[in-house]
Structures are given as C-alpha cells and as structure tokens.
Amino acid sequence: MKKVYVNEEVCIGCHLCEVYCRLRHASSSDLIKAFKSEKPEPLPRLRVEERGIVSFSVRCQQCEDAYCLYACLTGAITRDLINETIKVDGERCVGCWTCLLVCPLGAIKQDRLNKKAVRCDLCPEEDVPVCVVNCPNEALVYMDADEVDNGITSRANALA
After folding, report:
1. Residues 109-112: contacts with CB within 8 Å, 24+ apart?
2. What is the pLDDT of residues 100-120, one digit of tens each?
3. Cα-based torsion angle of the residue sequence 75, 59, 63, 152 in order, rounded to the nearest 10 degrees
4. What does the H/E/C string look like for 34-49?
5. Element (H or E) spanning 23, and its range?
6. Averaged pLDDT, 27-46
7. Mean pLDDT across the stretch 48-67?
8. pLDDT one-digit tens code per residue, 91-101
9. Per DSSP, what are the bridge partners of residue 55?
C-alpha cells in the first residue's frame, strides 16, 4: 500500500502541503475564496510541525494496527478492504474524539463546527495526493513501504 512519507532533511516548513490540502477539501477550487470567504472554513488533513531547524508534515500514516479503528465507538472509522486506507464516515461520526485520544501521531483533527473527526484521506480522486504534488522540495513522497528506504535516501542525497 502506498503512503505519504516525509524527508525532514529537505522540508523547509513552507506549509504549502497544508494550503493545498485545505484547498483540496474546500467547496471552491479558488484559493482566495477557500481561505477568505468559504464558510465553514475547510480544514487541512495534515499539519506542519516546526522545531528549530527541523520541520515536517504530520498526517495519518494508515497504520496497519490502527488504534483509531478499534477505539471508534460508532464504527465510523473503517478500513477500505480494496485499497487498505482508513476512512471516516461523517454520517456515523458523533465527535466523541476517542480516535483523537488514541492516535499516537496526533494525526486526527477536530472539525469542531460539524463535530466530526477528519484525517488524511490520501486524496482518493487523485493519482498522487495534492500535498505531495505541490511540495516544492519533494520533501513529501508517495510510495510503497518497501521503496521508502531507497527512495527517500536517494532523493535527499541528490538534493544535498
């Protein structure tokens, strides 16, 4: 299964992954409208953490043994058996935030207005998630787990 991986060595903390994720989940396809006038405000499904010179994007990692899946009281969080991604059914989610409490990455966000949990959905309508496509330094990569060690390391060495 493909996942989004981060190479923090080349992440510059520009937050463009957040911007494009927010735009992807907005009603409008216009960046200015999505940020300035859309109500409710669209939420990005990831966040950028910055600690000194280190910055990196944090999102759901589609855990094999996903605690959120087992902790969900209503069964709103499920694993798609075809592509193995974890999804939140907004109709079933009651906003109890149990999933948020058990996620070791803190990757689940609260949509407080709608009282729903939101998390990275890997942009199912896209071939590659928009955060990866729009990352200027290729700090985000979308690949299978067995490709990660070689792929991220070789990209970091090429940029150095």
Report:
1. 109/43, 109/44, 109/45, 109/47, 111/40, 111/43
2. 999 999 999 999 999 999 999
3. 160
4. HHHCCCCCCCCCCEEE
5. helix 16-24
6. 87
7. 92
8. 999 999 999 99
9. 50
Rounded CA-CA distance 111/124 in Å is 20
pTM score: 0.84
pLDDT band for 159, please (50, 70, 90 cuts).
Answer: low
Per-residue buried b or exposed e for 73-85, using 16+ beta carbons within 10 Å of the residue's own CB = eeebbeeeeeeeb
Cβ neighbours of residue 92 closer than 8 Å, sequence gap 6 or more: 74, 75, 76
SS3 97: coil
How far is 47 from 59, CA to CA, in rounded Å?
Answer: 7
Give how far Cα 47 sits from Cα of 33, 56, 95, Å: 21, 8, 20
Round to whole Å and give the CA distance between 70 and 113: 25
- Token pair belonging to 160: 């150095």
Closest CA to 99 of 126, 117, 112: 117
Cα(9)–Cα(54) distance, integer angstroms: 7
Domains belonging to the chain, first-starting first, are 1-59+120-152 (3.30.70.20), 62-106 (3.30.70.20)
